[in-house]
Amino acid sequence: MSKMRPFLLLQASSLTATISGSATFIGTPWLALHVTHSSTLAAIVIAASAVPGLLLTPFVGGLIDRFGRRRVAFWSEMFIFATSALIPIVAMTIGMSLPMLIILVVLKALMPGGQPARKSLLPDTADHAGMPLDRANSINEAIGAAGFAIGPSVAALLIWVFDSYAAFWAAAGFSLVASLLVLFIRVTEKQEPVEGEPESSHPIRYALQGFVTLGKIPALLVVFSSFIVLAIIYIPTEMVVLPRYYQGIGQPQFLGILITTMSTFTVMGSLLFERIHKWVGYSNIVRIAGVTIGLCMIPMALLPSYWLMLVLGAILGFVWGPMMPLLNTLIQTMVPANVRGRVFAVEIVMWNTAPLTSFIVVGLALDSFGVQPVYMTLAILVFVASAAIAMAPQLSHLSDEYKTSRA
Asked: Given 3.40.630.30, 1.20.1250.20, 2.30.30.50, 3.50.50.60, which CATH number is that of 5-183+208-406?
């Protein structure tokens, strides 16, 4: 049990941190709509919250590789605790306005190091526990998906019973717990010096080494690109389109239940990653996930009856499930440990900030054309882009490159 303790503590920290993040995933657009009464202005608020991640996450990745994975994980969650609590405190004391909301969501996003730090620390805790990396990532992403299933339900319930600010109080509490759990992790952080790597005294070159490393591994870059495509096209459906739809029909709890259903089935897919990749291979996981997500989105864009939305959301969540443990395993295996934090930082920055422009475009489109035409356009774009990625020749060499890295 003592060998498993660091891994279990890390999973508990990941769970509570993800509950915190996913609670604000629902709380931020809902609060923005409440304050602005406009999808376009709400989308601008959400996009503004992504700007610090775009600018700072690569440097936070450098902090992870320079000062330690555990240390950055702790301080990142402490910062989120303080800034999440600040939002309702400001609302209660001086009142909330659009400029103040933008300032606060930007402030909250200034230390985005928790997730890449925990992902970078995972192989160290798995090795300490004697656990295969595939299995560790399956459990880790299932835990994360479980947190993402719990957080929206908690936020939606609190918004329904109290108000939007209650979701931020909950987020603050969960982040505080996440940071304290990291304090009790005791494990050796593996070091793998990279020849010719820029010195940390050159902060910009040092931080950007994550991008350079990704570019040197074509098969990994293709998998990474599939995530970016989904970030740009798909994420606005959950962050902008669906909140607009369910706010319009006055049913915030339906949004929470839908996101929770998708996340629950993502947990199932994540837990089966170790088995699925043995059945179909790494390349086919990417192909099946992308195309199936597009095929599910097309009927969802017709805004059918709620039970059918839940069924399609469940399928979408399940095929997405193996994707995150796949990407994590590839990065942790193909990338040297001393660069791991910066590569995971690239993953996080692109996933969180790639939709920056699309949020605004989708918000403008919703105000002009309504939910259904915009949703259908996004669904078709996801399908076409996923089909193109599925035919990329580099994807066929993914398993061979993975085996070479492990040798």
From this structure: 1.20.1250.20
